[in-house]
Amino acid sequence: xxxxxxxxxxxxxxxxxxxxxxxxxxxxxxxxxxxxxxxxxxxxxxxxxxxxxxxxxxxxxxxxxxxxxxxxxxxxxxxxxxxxxxxxxxxxxxxxxxxxxxxxxxxxxxxxxxxxxxxxxxxxxxxxxxxxxxxxxxxxxxxxxxxxxxxxxxxxxxxxxxxxxxxxxxxxxxxxxxxxxxxxxxxxxxxxxxxxxxxxxxxxxxxxxxxxxxxxxxxxxxxxxxxxxxxxxxxxxxxxxxxxxxxxxxxxxxxxxxxxxxxxxxxxxxxxxxxxxxxxxxxxxxxxxxxxxxxxxxxxxxxxxxxxxxxxxxxxxxxxxxxxxxxxxxx
Amino acid sequence: xxxxxxxxxxxxxxxxxxxxxxxxxxxxxxxxxxxxxxxxxxxxxxxxxxxxxxxxxxxxxxxxxxxxxxxxxxxxxxxxxxxxxxxx
Lengths: 331, 88
Fold this sequence. Notes:
The complex is a heterodimer of chains A (331) and B (88). With 331 residues, chain A is α+β, with helices and mostly antiparallel strands. Chain A folds into 2 domains: 2-100, no CATH class; 115-321, no CATH class. Chain A has helices at residues 2-6, 11-16, 27-30, 36-45, 78-93, 155-159, 176-185, and strands at residues 21-26, 59-63, 69-73, 123-132, 147-153, 171-173, 203-216, 219-232, 251-264, 269-283, 296-305. In chain A, the strands form 2 sheets. In chain A, strands 5-4-11-10-9-8-7-6 form an 8-stranded antiparallel beta sheet. The two termini of chain A are 30 Å apart. Chain B is mainly alpha-helical and 88 residues long. Chain B has a domain at 53-79. Chain B has helices at 2-22, 36-43, 61-71, and one strand at residues 75-80. The longest helix of chain B is centred in the first third of the chain and has 21 residues, at 2-22. Classes of the chains: A alpha+beta (331), B mainly alpha (88). Chains A and B meet through helix 1, strand 1, helix 3, helix 4 and strand 2 of A and helix 2, helix 3 and strand 1 of B. Strand 2 of chain A pairs antiparallel with strand 1 (75-80) of chain B.
């Protein structure tokens, strides 16, 4: 995700992307599955910068709609990426008409995408996750990396954030399965890279309380307050899946949470939502780039209502092991 | 004697107020209603940190190819472990 800053924030590259259709996708699925869109990708990418069978195809590719690879690179260096993209554009300019067209028999239909389970009318949040260095924070002292994720609650779960008939002054405990979604899958140390979730048994302390502040016609304003402590020590408890680490690394997270939101009882949706959490992290996981970090430090999380753009509908990082039986898994 | 005791007691009381006022009980990185906005504003990505989002990214390889064909432009694909528009 370092590329977001080093490559895709470079003004020369931003300007050049106007001559392309800029596209993103998750490579782990594309490089492995046998759906027609993935096979199309594999045939293109296998001619690129990484060719070893079975290894990653992460990178930046320029290709024509008929799948002809024009250039590829995997780099965090803006100058190198710029050169590669320009090289690809030059080759595009030399293509024939037929080489520029998507074959008519190409359906490219995936048999499964996690985004197909997107919870319409539910509570969908975007989280921004950043390292905290000082208290009080200094705006221009910031980490070189930060991350984001999306949180999904379906319509039924969204309504469970409030009591059945919310009245001013009501204090309500968020049901465990909803609180655990945050503690296990989102209040984790993914600031600098992908990390591991916590198992429910590893949530040693948790409390997420909703206080109804007022109710005016159909609008209910709530305050959210809570804390948690998650400790992962020794054995991996979430079974065999794509996240199973090759070796255990003890790590933990303690959080404090505060937020506010408004729920419309007629529309049955949240119209406002903002929640901050501060986490104290201990230890590291295999891939979360904490090798050179101190043993412990602080992380800030900001959860806000996602907008309805396509980019806001990307599935949560741990969607494949989410505690949500309404999410459709691949066959 | 009583006057000296009174002065002594007053001294203890004033000293206690002084010490209490000076003590730094504030826990570091604490999230309270007073510190909420401060932390929220810091965690919010800055304009620079959000520049990469100004690019009109399509969110799937399929969508990008179809748009590239319709618009007769080359596709620029950024593929990562973890979706680039989500957690990577």
